[in-house]
Design goal:
Shape: elongated
Structural class: alpha+beta
Helix content: 25-40%
Largest sheet: 5 strands, antiparallel
Distance between the termini: 53 Å
Number of helices: 13
Length: 271
């Protein structure tokens, strides 16, 4: 993760107008705005978020802001420009760094900073980021937040009027592919379908559970094929036969192994 303060060259006080956060592995940008930011001093189109009372700029609009400050990918002589700047390929972050974020349309620029340079209020904000997500039946998500809260969110109720999400809600396999956005900024299904962390935090119902509780459950109550065979005092082939006869039900199957709930294996010994 790389962090940059956005500043205005005309401001002698070098005030941090906003912060640009870049996640290198996912090539994803986010912009965080201070709570007391002035919409008139905040770069467009970021000021529109402040006017709506939002201080986190989502990945889509953060990237738009970056793209407005660099050479477009469809520039006629883009190949020569990349070669002149010793770039092997078109990369938004690398191009942004060539000018420290400066562009001809305004006086904003970037300064590399660290997390300790964030305003204190940001750390409270980041406590509502997502640590983990578990898809449940009936269109619910179990979401673990950084502040220790665990919430159960009804996705059907939240997304029923959003046509873009209808394929996800109707296809269980697609629904179960939910993942966390870089930095815990929300959950997503691919690049375009995502829900922000603060929306999920506000709509979810509190569950008296912690991430540590969940980890302990998985550690102690989920076992692999070898462990299941040991508990049943049988071979791996016997395990496969029980599965074929619908006597055992793996919770996850890979090419090399399967995972089971330990409770089901123990109960199998009762029969």
């Amino acid at each position: 993760m790389k962090i940059f303060a956005i500043r205005d060259e005309n401001d002698s006080a070098n005030k941090d107008i906003a912060f640009l956060i870049y996640y290198e592995c996912d090539k994803r940008f986010y912009i965080e705005l201070p709570e007391n930011a002035d919409p008139w001093e905040t770069p467009l189109p970021l000021s529109s978020f402040l006017k709506r009372g939002e201080t986190t700029v989502n990945a889509y609009w953060s990237r738009i802001w970056v793209q407005q400050r660099i050479i477009p990918s469809d520039r006629q002589n883009i190949g020569q420009i990349l070669k002149d700047n010793k770039l092997d390929s078109y990369d938004e972050f690398d191009l942004l760094m060539l000018t420290n974020g400066r562009c001809a349309q305004d006086d904003y620029y970037l300064v590399s900073v660290s997390e300790k340079d964030f305003p204190e209020s940001f750390f409270k904000r980041f406590q509502k980021k997502i640590e983990d997500v578990v898809p449940l039946t009936n269109g619910h998500l179990l979401i673990f937040f950084r502040d220790g809260n665990v919430k159960k969110c009804d996705m059907e109720e939240l997304l029923i009027n959003n046509k873009a999400f209808l394929p996800i809600l109707k296809d269980e396999k697609m629904y179960y592919r939910v993942s966390i956005q870089p930095g815990g900024y929300g959950v997503c299904w691919g690049e375009s379908l995502n829900i922000a962390d603060y929306i999920l935090y506000d709509c979810g119902k509190d569950i008296p559970l912690s991430l540590e509780d969940f980890r302990l459950f998985v550690e102690n109550r989920v076992i692999n094929t070898t462990e299941a065979a040991e508990l049943l005092n049988c071979s791996r082939q016997n395990i496969d036969d029980l599965i074929r006869r619908n006597k055992l039900h793996p919770i996850k199957t890979t090419q090399k192994s399967k995972l089971f709930l330990k409770s089901e294996i123990i109960q199998r010994n009762w029969k």
